[in-house]
Amino acid sequence: MHYVNWISRQDFGETTNQVISAGLGGILYGALALRTGSIWPGVALHALWDAVVSMNGMLTANVVAEVADSGSTDDGGTSIFAFLIGNFEPILGVIVLIGWWRWRRAQTT
User: Fold this and answer.
1) DSSP single-letter state for residue 72
2) Separation CA 15–CA 103 (nearest Å)
3) Is the CB of residue 12 less than 8 Å from the CB of residue 6?
4) Tens digit of pLDDT for each residue in 48-95?
5) CB–CB of 25/46 below 8 Å?
């Protein structure tokens, strides 16, 4: 269903990344449901993910608008902020994976 975004004129490469991300998320939510015996942890995680994606879209749009309005070259600080905002979802994913790994390690000891 995410390829509908490509039909709506989203870039094909961006749409493909979105489809891969959604597929991997689906595997995660399915594994979580099998592990817990309930779909609700996956529902909560998906809702959190959608909220993060929505906030990231709004923040990215604001940063792009501010940089465009300033008409100045990048001062370095804006570059780092724009990078963090633009890559927030993968960064959050890595943080969640590290947290999960540490939790699993703590459970086995």
Assistant:
1) S
2) 33
3) yes
4) 888 887 887 777 777 666 656 665 555 555 677 667 766 666 777 778
5) yes
